[in-house]
Amino acid sequence: MRLMTRSLILLALILVAGPGLHLRAAKKSKPLNFVFILVDDLGYMDVGCNNPDTFYETPHINRLAKSGMRFTNGYAANPVCSPTRYSIMTGKYPTRVDATNFFSGKRAGKFLPAPLNDRMPLDEVTIAEALKEHAYSTFFAGKWHLGPSEEFWPEKQGFDINKGGWSRGGPYGGKRYFSPYGNPRLSDGPDGEHLPDRLATETAEFIDAHREQPFFAYLAFYSVHTPLMGPNALVKKYKEKAERLGLEGKVEFADEEQVFPTDEKRKVRILQKHAVYAAMVESMDRAVGKVLQQLEASGVADNTVVMLTADNGGLSTSEGSPTSNLPLRGGKGWLYEGGIREVFLIRWPGGGQPGSVCDEPVITTDFYPTILDLAGLPLKPEQHLDGVSLKPFLQGEEPLKREALFWHYPHYSNQGGIPGGAIRMDDWKLIERFEDGQAHLYNLKTDVGEKQDLAAAEPERVKQMRRRLHQWYTETDAKFLQAKPGGPEPWRPEK
């Protein structure tokens, strides 16, 4: 009798709740959607959520950070673009397939660079392919730069739709950042249409069209990569801002070390005031805002994970040197923090704590397993073998700390970066130069600018960290600098 009474009460509650209870239950069980946003060449200190004093204006990215988790020690797997893009797509260090420089980058210096594989192998199970296995619709927009010909472009790597992804590393056709684009995977818009806005529009349209089914939208901006050009009205705005802030006439550059070329001094930007670059950053941020707004308008914001990061640090030592990464040293093309520490944001509605901050070191290989884990899908450790799920961090838990993070860049970068490897263990970071094997040690907790080399004062720590780095070289079959014909032999790590 008591059991029957409880059953009648439960039935009455369900009837009173009506269809709303059913809809809430259905919504709760609906698979999560994912929007992944990758910004090209965006510096860690370019956005307001990381740097309240930035010259640039990024209100939409700032709001994204406040609604999710901001990682203060988020890293790209490489100081230039293609390798990091590979790491996101595969969950692997790019060293494993010799994809260690931007694809086609083979500059020589004192020595020849290491062999370079300039395509993402087709047998990789990309994150898009892993999601397609579970009925996700997949979409790509923007910069791909992961293969020289169309058999290696997004459509062959798990994406149902591709808007603008092909071999090129920048918008170099047509009017570049303005239509006509001269892009075989993106139709031209009205004359003068702005590329970041167009890519955001394409992404927004995909989101709305697929709001009733699980989707994965990957928006990889060409911005803020060179060529440096922005809307005239925004450029004017930032020129006036620089004048208003009294930045005109202030020192903009300082000296940086240089090994290539040997006949000139390398300069690094130390002041943010570049009006064109600022216009590019704001245009990109507005495009991010358009996508976030579409999630709300389509009614899927509460069921969509949003991730945002960059492929390498801000461009500070070449090609116009448009931004400063201070207090981080160096920039794109360098193994210093300015070249690899990134904007790293994840918003997980209903799971993470809005406005939270995580200081644990994480890296771009981690996105792949994190997406699968948040989606409740089986992990693929044989594929994303260098990444770990960040779900415990997002839940406020303390997962087991991994031993180390690694970098391997056996190339002479266009930006002056020195061929080398690096390892981070806790607060310590060691950089090893590949020309001569010289090692430098920094404590990032007390010296984030990597100004004080502690190698001589910490010989045992150097020995320990080099040993682990060299083991990793062996594990990943890392390649190194090569001698020029008739030239001296470059340094090699001990085996």
TrEMBL record:
Name this polypeptide is given: Sulfatase
Organism (species): Gimesia benthica
Domain Sulfatase N-terminal positions: 33-376
Superkingdom of origin: Bacteria
SUPFAM superfamilies: Alkaline phosphatase-like
Annotated Gene3D superfamilies: 3.30.1120.10, Alkaline Phosphatase, subunit A
Family: Belongs to the sulfatase family.
Keyword Signal: yes
Keywords: Calcium, Hydrolase, Metal-binding, Signal
Molecular function terms from GO: arylsulfatase activity; metal ion binding
InterPro entries membership: Alkaline_phosphatase_core_sf (IPR017850), Sulfatase (IPR050738), Sulfatase_CS (IPR024607), Sulfatase_N (IPR000917)
Cofactor: Ca(2+)
